[in-house]
């Protein structure tokens, strides 16, 4: 699906029914155009990290994507970027800082990679007002326990800035994915406000267990519960009661624009869990509004 979008009737009705001023989407991707094109090319090739065909539903230029997202009633969103090699993160952070300046409804996003300069550019990102960091263990192929990251995690913990972290082993396991490296990281930095992307798929239970121990650990719903994810890594039905228990620590994410289905399906996938309107209000808006100070 390409081109500009008007308001989606399903999403408009969803917001109206729940009395929401909008949706807050903590997991969206805006990147420098050359990087975004390379990401799309990788998905098009069904590369080894995707493990399956992955058509991009909202392939369009940046301004069209922004209008599309706003047309869905999204009031705030992120620009998640992630380096796959050294000497890339600082450049990405410069771009996201400029993007946030010209896009006031986008959370100021930053990232990092295990390298000697990481402490310096992360400190600079925090000084410039970074509101959320993004880490992709699978793509970056690095251990979150790397000693080069110790000062970075300390800075982020002290600043209480959330980190959206892709650390689950889906869609393809990596050398450092899974709950064990994150458990070890949290033992050293127990107040890290991590947001586990994709609910930790496919290690849902293990990451939920970690949340029992660490009250600052949160989750985003990105792609979870959709037909696309349920075919490959279904969320265990016996854990659905824990979704209610952690209702104040789950945030809506979509992976826009890099999703192989329509945006409203991501919302409907949550609705059909039948966990109640209050749960939906918290997940789709209030939890993120509280976390990021969005009035």
TrEMBL record:
The keyword ATP-binding does not apply. Transmembrane segments: none annotated. It holds the Pfam family Amidohydro_2. GO terms for cellular component: cytoplasm. GO terms for biological process: secondary metabolic process. The keyword Endoplasmic reticulum does not apply. One of its GO terms (molecular function) is hydrolase activity. It comes from the Bacteria. Residues 24-294 form the Amidohydrolase-related domain. InterPro entries: ACMSD, Amidohydro-rel, Metal_Hydrolase. Keywords: Hydrolase, Lyase. This is Putative amidohydrolase. It comes from Nocardia ninae NBRC 108245.
């Amino acid at each position: 699906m390409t081109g500009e979008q008007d308001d989606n009737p399903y999403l408009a009705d969803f917001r109206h029914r729940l009395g929401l001023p909008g949706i807050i989407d903590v997991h969206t991707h805006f990147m420098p155009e050359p990087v975004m094109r390379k990401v799309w090319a990788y998905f098009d090739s069904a590369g080894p990290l995707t493990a399956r065909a992955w058509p991009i539903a909202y392939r369009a230029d940046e301004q069209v994507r922004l209008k599309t997202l706003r047309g869905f009633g999204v009031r705030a969103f992120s620009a998640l970027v992630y380096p796959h090699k050294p000497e890339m993160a600082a450049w990405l952070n410069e771009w996201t800082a400029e993007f946030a300046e010209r896009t006031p409804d986008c959370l100021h996003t930053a990232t990092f990679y295990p390298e000697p300069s990481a402490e310096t550019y992360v400190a600079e990102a925090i000084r410039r007002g970074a509101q959320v960091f993004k880490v992709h263990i699978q793509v970056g192929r690095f251990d979150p326990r790397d000693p080069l990251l110790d000062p970075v995690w300390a800075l982020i913990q002290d600043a209480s800035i959330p980190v959206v972290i892709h650390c689950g082993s889906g869609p393809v396991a990596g050398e450092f994915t899974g709950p064990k490296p994150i458990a070890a990281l949290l033992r050293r930095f127990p107040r890290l406000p991590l947001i586990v992307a994709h609910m930790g798929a496919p290690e849902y239970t293990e990451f939920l267990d970690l949340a029992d121990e660490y009250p600052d650990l949160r989750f985003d719903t990105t792609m979870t519960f959709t037909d696309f994810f349920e075919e490959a890594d279904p969320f265990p039905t016996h854990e659905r009661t824990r979704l209610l228990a952690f209702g104040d620590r789950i945030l809506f994410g979509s992976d826009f624009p890099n999703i192989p289905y329509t945006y409203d399906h991501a919302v409907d996938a949550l609705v059909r869990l039948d966990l109640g309107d209050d749960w939906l209000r918290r997940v789709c808006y209030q939890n993120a509004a509280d976390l990021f100070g969005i009035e």
